[in-house]
Design goal:
The protein is mainly alpha-helical. It has one domain (14-367). It has helices at 14-43, 48-68, 79-96, 116-135, 142-162, 166-183, 187-207, 209-219, 230-242, 267-300, 304-328, 347-368; strands at residues 98-100, 103-109, 112-114. The chain has a 3-stranded antiparallel beta sheet with strand order 1-2-3. A hairpin with a 2-residue loop joins β1 and β2. The radius of gyration is 21 Å and the shape is globular. The protein starts with 13 loop residues before the first helix and ends in a 5-residue tail after the last helix.
Length: 373
């Protein structure tokens, strides 16, 4: 199929679509509960953040529906151009970007702001999918098939790292490794990357005092309960006080100036306090369902490019989700990475929903390609 639109004969994966909508609705409700105190304090409007979340969600759903009807093969021809655009924006944000939280990650256009690293994640997935499809079995070669794409990813990694966004850069690198592994890269090639990457990550952590503090606070948050350990301690208090059923929607206490970034990085803790274990387990289960349907789409894709696109887009979202959950539950060091669909965010939500539109189009093509279709 070479047209720009998938045939209307088959529906996209409705389970994947329904899971996405369920996470989106949970996110909007949780953003309101987690952010109304901050909105009232900072802007005099308790609905400030939830109104923005609803607006971006609406734009994202529109983008999802549009992209879902565009043949995913169209994006292959834009893989290099998209990567170059991402590099340009990542360079631009270092020059004219808005600084917040110790990093320079946003480009502001009027009342709106854009995070180029979100577009970069999508561009890297598309580039790798196109490159792997072009190489075919050549992906098992060391230089042409493995080191070259990893060098490209490494360059993007460094640009995002320059924004002081360590969590996003690591998630991007892990996603690239997952895609190359799924494509059939040799295990010793992956081991070679690990030999270089692991010491490099430790060096990056050692050279930045704030990263070292995050590691030490992860190992023992009570060593500095009013400093580096504050975030994780308050997060654990929130989750622990929620119990099985939670205190009730809106009844959480930690969001009242105790839990930092309660509507973004640590929103999962607010969910745990107010909706209990059942609430957090439901969200985790929805992400497992999302992973199942996304990788199922990859296995059924009619071509290698579609399969790699599905693997990359699914892993991009799922890896970020479980890293965030690991941070909030004290299972991983604090990374400053948000929870897809649930955390408040504009460009990240829009890009994520557009990415799911691409994934749904691949699922539609996968259904069309099945015997008897």
């Amino acid at each position: 199929m070479t047209g720009r639109r998938a045939s209307p004969g088959r529906s996209p994966d409705l389970v994947l679509f329904g899971t996405t909508l369920a996470l989106l609705v949970i996110g909007i409700v949780t953003v309101f509960s987690a952010s109304y105190t901050t909105g009232l304090r900072e802007f005099g409007d308790p609905y400030y953040y939830v109104k923005r979340q609803i607006l971006w969600a609406a734009l994202g759903v529109i983008a999802l529906v549009i992209v879902m009807h565009v043949d995913y093969r169209v994006w292959r021809r834009w893989s290099v151009a998209g990567l170059l655009l991402a590099v340009l924006l990542l360079g631009l944000v270092l020059v004219i970007g808005t600084e917040a939280g110790g990093g320079r990650r946003w480009i502001r256009v009027g009342p709106l702001s854009m995070q180029p690293s979100e577009l970069a994640k999508l561009a890297v997935v598309n580039f790798l999918a196109a490159y792997i499809a072009a190489q075919g079995g050549g992906i098992r070669r060391l230089f042409q098939g493995f080191l070259f794409p990893m060098a490209v990813v490494g360059f993007i990694f460094l640009l995002i790292l320059a924004e002081r966004d360590f969590g996003t850069s690591v998630a991007l690198g892990l996603n690239a490794v997952v895609m190359l592994f799924a494509a059939g890269a040799q295990l010793w090639h992956l081991g070679l990357i690990a030999l270089v990457a692991v010491p490099g990550l430790f060096l990056l952590i050692y050279l930045e005092p704030y990263r070292m503090r995050r590691i030490t606070s992860f190992l023992n948050p009570w060593a500095d309960p009013l400093g580096a350990g504050w975030n994780i301690i308050q997060s654990l208090y929130a989750i622990g006080s929620g119990g099985l059923f939670g205190l009730g929607l809106g009844a959480g206490r930690q969001k009242f100036a105790y839990l930092p970034e309660q509507h973004t990085d640590f929103i999962y803790a607010v969910l745990g306090e107010e909706m209990g274990f059942l609430g957090t387990a439901t969200v985790a289960l929805l992400f497992f369902v999302f992973a199942w349907r996304g990788y199922r789409t990859a296995l059924r894709a009619p071509d290698l490019y579609g399969a790699m696109l599905a693997v990359g887009l699914t892993s991009m979202i799922v890896l970020q989700a479980f890293i965030n959950m690991g941070v909030v539950t004290g299972s991983m060091p604090v990374t400053g990475i948000t929870l897809p669909f649930i955390s408040a965010g504009g460009s990240s939500l829009l890009v994520t929903l557009a990415a799911i539109g691409v994934l749904l189009n691949v699922s539609r093509a996968a259904e069309e390609g099945r015997p008897g279709s």
